[in-house]
Amino acid sequence: QVQLVESGGGLVQAGGSLSLSCAASGRTFSWYVMGWFRQAPGKEREFAAAINRFGSSTVYADSVKGRFTISRDNAKNTVYLQMNSLKPEDTAVYYCAAGQYIATSRNRYDYWGQGTQVTVSS
């Protein structure tokens, strides 16, 4: 079992930045691929970014590529999502997830946090 707790969400103006964190506890953090997903009201949960166990490989959705950066610190059992140049369409609940394989499908992730709200005003 892995427990995941996100933090860092909030309200920001378009063009601004936010940094999300996801702290993990339980089983060895470095065993897991970590991902960030997001879900806007009335929409399905969608992939945003993922990072491999060692932090040496990352994958991004086209919608966030060049604006978001995923990173991890295995010594602190934490994964981060730095979000720059935010747009109103980035408004969503952001979830971190842990899985065995780097993937864009939410079905490939086994553990999920409760989410943190990000709201971008125009």
Describe this structure in words.
The protein is mainly beta and 122 residues long. It has no helices and eleven strands. Strands 2, 4, 5, 6, 9, 10 and 11 form a seven-stranded mixed β-sheet that branches. The radius of gyration is 13 Å and the shape is globular.
Oligomer kind: single chain
Q: Helix content range of the residues, please?
A: under 10%
The structure class reads mainly beta
How many DSSP helices? 0
What separation lies between the terminal Cα atoms?
40 Å
Largest sheet geometry: 7 strands, mixed
Q: What is the number of beta strands?
A: 11
Query: Could you name the ranges where pLDDT drops below 50 across 5 or more consecutive residues?
Result: none
Give the overall silhouette.
globular
What is the overall pLDDT average?
96
User: SSE string, helix = H, strand = E?
Assistant: EEEEEEEEEEE
Note the beta-strand portion.
Answer: over 45%
Rounded radius of gyration (Å):
13 Å
Properties at a glance:
mainly beta, seven-stranded mixed β-sheet, 0% helix
Itemize the secondary structure elements and their pairings:
Elements: E1 2-7, E2 10-13, E3 18-26, E4 33-39, E5 46-51, E6 58-60, E7 68-73, E8 78-83, E9 92-99, E10 109-112, E11 116-121
Parallel strand pairs: 2-11
Antiparallel strand pairs: 1-3, 3-8, 4-5, 4-9, 5-6, 7-8, 9-10, 9-11
Short description:
Helix content is about 0%, strand content about 55%. By secondary structure, the protein is an all-beta fold. Strand 7 and strand 8 (about 80-85) form a beta hairpin.
